From TrEMBL:
Domain of life the protein comes from: Eukaryota
Taxonomy of the source species: Eukaryota, Amoebozoa, Evosea, Eumycetozoa, Dictyostelia
Annotated protein name in UniProt: Queuine tRNA-ribosyltransferase accessory subunit 2
Record keyword Zinc present: yes
Pfam families membership: TGT
Gene Ontology MF: a single term: metal ion binding
Record note on quaternary structure: Heterodimer of a catalytic subunit and an accessory subunit.
Cellular component GO terms held in the UniProt record: cytoplasm
Primary location group: cytoplasm
Source organism (scientific name): Dictyostelium firmibasis
Length: 390
């Protein structure tokens, strides 16, 4: 099913609000994809997913390596991954890179290496085309592998050339799936530009572009400088997606450059550490300069043992409405899985609210002011935290 991407005009800045539509599903950007394992959102059942505040339709990142081992089942099922996973109401993106970790995959002229439960398997472009037709996601990346920032130029050149050939073959197969092209090249600007020019030859057959290989050792300045140059030459109507970066600071810097969609596991990473996100993100709160002690709290801390307050008073998520810090602290210390469920609900909801506010300030032409206030608050809190530690 063909998608459309409608962009709200923002003449003064590169950041923009978009609406990605496919069938009856409508999804607002900038936003982030929910992280999954083997097709399921981590710690969230379908009912919990559908009850999250701020958005009704979510985008989910499905890892090719997770689904590859089940393609024989999906082939027999014949009705596609949406119905198989009971995720018909949401947008499903089939990606190759796992945003939770970076492992540089092996590849050659004909194939890439995919790691599954059964070990490493080589996937050719013909295999990939066949499997994409079986999985039937809403969106898919053309075949490629991420390479690290410091990869040698010889290796970077090889993946740029291979990715270009694979893109041509994938598009020729007419899978009927909305396709994202991939810009490769590591730290080498000339290779990035070659990859971009190869992609532009097929720009009208693509719905978006993945800026690949970031979050692999580069500095924020290096990343932003290169992305800024690339986005200037990409079609305005393309959805711009990036994987592997997703902290609040990174989000704001990249939204400012024109990134629409983030493949990140940041909220889930916070959950793994027992952290609950508490940073203030509403413009009026940042302007009021209210005292905010921390950007996140660690609920393993014994100071929460009898704290009968919610993580954030007034938060609309199920966790904050129904439960207390003390209860989640208890669940963590007794190693109950419910602790991770409740933290995931809150952290994902908090990040959804953060992006909702980003979209609002872009619409109101306040993004630059918002970013300045937000980052000043983050720095202030981090400095206070460091002072208290000394």
């Amino acid at each position: 099913m063909t998608s459309t991407f409608k962009i709200s005009d923002n003449k003064d800045e590169k950041c923009r609000v978009g609406t990605l539509e496919i069938g009856e599903k409508s999804y607002l950007t900038p936003s982030f994809m929910l992280y999954t394992k083997e097709g399921s959102p981590i710690n969230l059942t379908k009912d919990l997913l559908n009850q999250l505040p701020h958005e009704k339709t979510h985008s989910l990142q499905l890892l090719f390596s997770d689904l590859f081992q089940f393609t024989d089942v999906l082939e027999k099922f014949e009705q596609g991954v949406h119905k198989f996973l009971a995720l018909q109401d949401h947008l499903l993106f089939l990606l190759i890179r796992d945003s939770s970790s970076f492992v540089e995959a092996e590849f050659n002229d004909d194939s890439i290496s995919v790691t599954t439960r059964k070990g490493k398997t080589k996937i050719t472009i013909q295999d990939y085309i066949k499997l994409v037709k079986v999985i039937k996601p809403d969106f898919v990346t053309s075949l490629s592998v991420d390479i690290a920032w410091e990869t040698s130029k010889k290796k970077a050149t090889k993946i740029v050339n291979s990715s270009s050939i694979w893109l041509e073959k994938f598009l020729e197969a007419n899978t009927g799936i909305n396709t994202f092209g991939v810009i490769q090249g590591g730290k080498f600007e000339d290779l990035r530009m070659k990859s971009l020019q190869d992609l532009l030859k097929n720009k009208d057959r693509l719905v978006g572009t993945i800026l690949s290989g970031f979050g692999t050792g580069e500095t924020n300045e290096e990343r932003n400088q290169l992305i800024n140059k690339l986005i200037d030459q990409l079609p305005k109507e393309h959805v711009k997606l990036i994987s592997g970066v997703g902290s609040p600071e990174e989000i704001l810097s990249l939204v400012e450059l024109g990134i629409d969609l983030f493949s990140t596991n940041y909220p889930n990473l916070m959950t793994e550490w027992g952290n609950a996100l508490t940073f203030k993100y509403k413009m009026n709160e940042l302007k009021n300069n209210d005292n905010q002690e921390e950007n996140k709290i660690n609920l393993w801390d014994s100071k929460f043992v009898i704290d009968a307050t919610p993580i954030i008073k007034g938060c609309e998520c199920f966790t904050c409405i129904q439960h207390t810090k003390a209860y989640i602290h208890h669940l963590l210390n007794t190693h109950e899985m419910l602790a991770e469920v409740l933290l995931t609900i809150h952290n994902v909801s908090h990040y959804l609210g953060f992006f909702e506010e980003i979209r609002r300030v872009i619409k109101d032409s306040q993004f630059s002011e918002y970013k300045k206030l937000f980052l000043e608050k983050r720095i202030q809190i981090n400095n206070n935290s460091n002072s208290n530690d000394n």
